[in-house]
Specification:
Layout lengths: L4 H7 L13 H9 L13 H6 L1 H4 L5 E4 L6 E4 L16 E7 L4 H13 L2 E3 L2 E3 L3 E5 L5 H14 L4 E4 L2 H11 L5 E5 L4 H11 L3 E3 L4 H13 L5 E4 L5 H16 L10 E3 L8 H13 L4 E4 L4 H14 L12 E5 L8 E5 L2 H14 L3 E6 L6 H6 L5 H10 L10 E4 L7 H7 L4 E4 L7 H7 L6
Parallel strand pairs: 3-6, 3-12, 6-7, 7-8, 8-9, 9-10, 10-11, 11-12, 14-15, 14-16, 16-17
Antiparallel strand pairs: 1-2, 4-5, 13-15
Helix pairs in contact: 1-2, 5-6, 6-7, 11-12, 13-17, 15-16
Length: about 450
């Protein structure tokens, strides 16, 4: 039985130290009971209390790790139904589907393209996470050979979609570490559970109904197989979406443990239309796919899905930020203009893209204002002359240019005079108010040489 907030409070140190991020131990206990906090956040709780509070401190949705090493993927362990309530934590993994009856050269080409489809955005690397290998041929040796080929071509963790004998042959042939085994059903649960325990691997569960799902997860938990991933078993957008929402609410709102596991979805098996496959994947990235399996992750589709995932799994209380510093655009030199703006990611991308589009070389300075936009940062007292001058002074921009002319956004024209006082010897120029006017401005602008 789940413990109440008062039950938990009795086991806490009652220091009200606030080191957990919550002002009092009572408030922390109430949040822990509601699934909104982790017991690990309390630095003073005793080992004895941890043992007693294990049920209450367990997240309502279990976290599951697939693979090992640099490409490990962790899914699940979410605490809220809606992102604005707190944040989402572990982004879903995108998986490319490879079938073992495909032409060998075609598989090589797909894997090579997948490996190349990687992007850097706001200091993060955006890429796919998994490869799902399906035993379409029905042959054990063919499946093992293709799995071995995949592991030799790419380091991503694998999803092995086959019956127990083929999975075991593939794991042994390729020496796999913690692949996701797919999938346990009412008919093969004993064999699949045995494999999961033998290889310490996570296991997918595929029921025929939500009622059967609860029976299967309960049975597997009793067998000691706890790292589970749920496939709803449906293959239409409407049914899958409904079940994703339903199980998420049961796990987080009703504390129903049999439904408290991350999920796997299959846009690859729901539609033959490439664009609709991307639409299905986007829906599941938003609500609430843990793994999203696609047959096509070509760059034009992948980039849109990667950026969507990144945006959804950014903490809404902490704006996405760009690292402070000077960024060279269009190969600037010592005569190129120097511009400055804030580190709000959207501001950076809009301004930098306009500079790139102008074909004019420039140095773009990014000032750390806690991720706020230009006007908001100015109003909050963060994009102000003192901070901008300190940024310029600590940077190495004077080693890169032979002039002292600084262009500031037109929306903060009022700080130009004070900024010139802070930056002795510099000429401050007010640039355009709108980013769209930057190309025309740069084409006619000449810095004042020292």
């Amino acid at each position: 039985m789940a413990l109440t907030g008062m039950d938990i409070f009795k086991q806490l140190p009652k220091t009200n130290c606030g080191e957990c991020g919550i002002p009092t131990c009572l408030a922390f206990a109430m949040k822990l009971a509601a699934g909104g906090a982790s017991l690990e956040a309390c630095p003073h709780v005793s080992e004895e209390a941890k043992a007693k509070l294990s049920e209450a401190s367990a997240p309502p949705m279990r976290g599951v790790t697939i693979g090992e090493g640099d490409y490990t993927l962790k899914i699940g362990e979410e605490l809220v139904v809606y992102r604005h309530e707190k944040t989402f934590f572990n982004p879903p993994g995108y998986a490319l589907l490879v079938e073992d009856n495909e032409d060998s050269a075609a598989i090589d080409a797909k894997l090579a393209l997948l490996k190349e489809t990687s992007y850097e955005r706001v200091g993060q690397i955006l890429r796919a996470d998994l490869v799902a290998v399906k035993n379409t041929s029905g042959d054990v040796n063919t499946f093992a050979d293709v799995v071995k080929k995949v592991t030799g071509a790419i380091e991503y963790p694998l999803i092995l979609m086959a019956e127990a004998p083929a999975i075991e042959a593939a794991v042994e042939a390729a020496s796999l570490a913690k692949p996701l085994l797919y999938a346990a059903t009412a008919a093969n649960i004993d064999a699949m559970a045995g494999l999961a325990k033998k290889y310490s691997a996570p296991l997918a569960v595929k029921p025929t109904s939500l009622e059967e799902l609860a029976e299967l997860t309960d049975k597997l938990d009793g067998m000691g197989v706890k790292d589970l991933v749920i496939d709803m078993g449906t293959r239409t957008l409407k049914e899958t979406f409904q079940n994703l929402v339903f199980t998420r609410r049961l796990a987080l709102k009703k504390k129903q443990r049999p439904f408290g596991y991350p999920t796997i979805t299959f846009p690859a098996e729901e539609t033959d239309d490439d664009m609709m496959e991307a639409v299905h994947a986007a829906v599941y990235a938003i609500k609430y796919g843990g793994i999203i399996v696609l047959r096509d992750l070509s760059p034009e589709k992948a980039y849109a899905l990667f950026v969507l995932r990144q945006n959804i799994y950014t903490d809404p209380q902490r704006p996405m930020q760009v690292e402070q510093g000077f960024y060279p655009i269009n190969n600037p030199n010592e005569d190129s203009p120097v511009l400055v703006t804030t580190n709000f990611s959207l501001t950076y991308f809009i301004v930098s893209s306009e500079i790139e589009g102008s074909k004019m070389p420039a140095w773009l300075g990014i000032v750390d204002v806690d991720g706020l936009s230009t006007l908001t940062a100015w109003a909050a007292g963060k994009f102000v002359p003192e901070r901008i001058a300190a940024f310029i002074g600590k940077s190495d921009i004077l080693d890169k240019v032979k002039h002292k002319t600084l262009v500031i956004p037109g929306y903060v024209a009022q700080i130009s005079g004070e900024l010139e006082e802070e930056l002795q010897g510099w000429k401050v120029v007010v640039g355009p108010r709108e980013a769209a006017d930057i190309p025309a401005f740069l084409k006619s602008f000449q810095p004042v040489m020292a």
